[in-house]
Each structure stands twice: as C-alpha cells, then as structure tokens.
Amino acid sequence: MSKAGKSSKSRRKKTVRARLQLPDILDLTAAAPLAQSLLAHRGGELSVDASSVRRIGAQCLQVLLAAAATWKADGVKLYLREPTEEFLEGARLLGIQLDRDLAGSEPV
Hints:
The chain is an alpha/beta fold. It has one domain (17-101): 2-Layer Sandwich (Transcription Regulator spoIIAA), CATH 3.30.750.24. 44% of the residues lie in helices and 15% in strands. The protein has helices spanning 8-11, 28-40, 58-74, 85-93, 98-101; strands at residues 18-21, 25-26, 46-49, 55-56, 78-81.
C-alpha cells in the first residue's frame, strides 16, 4: 500500500504524559527535591498527582507555581491531579487559587 493510502491515525504523534507523584509531606526539605523532579520532566506534558499530600508549605507551593509558569511559557500542559483537602486548604491559606494560579491544571 502506498503512503497516500495509509490512515492519518498512523502518522499522528502520540503524546505521552509523564506522571509525578507528590509525597505526603511537602515542607521546606521537600522543596529542592521537588524542583529537581519537575525539571527532569521539563519539555513534555506532566501530570502531577497530589492525592497523597497531607501537608504543603509555602516553598513547595511556590515551586509548583513556578513549574506551572514554566510549562505554560514552554507551551506544554501541566496537570494537577486529585489534590487532597489538605493540599487545597494549604493553598487557600496562602492565597492561591488553583484554578487561576496553577494554569493548565485540571479542574479541582
């Protein structure tokens, strides 16, 4: 079969979304390792799973916001998945509106 006869589906590039599981405690000591983990995934779509977070501090939230801005500037999607009530409450206490400030995240 000629190339013209092939389905356009076979020519589509599949987008593989990497996944990053956040630890249960996101405090000051977790900020640098979190930043390194995020940078390792730069350049591709990333799904950040917040389903285990029990405590989040300002530094880690700042790292996540910086990552959202970086992914947006790169034209790539960054998704926040299944944030816990503790994650959401920590963000609210720090004045962060996830739907606005974590651009590209899935609705919470």
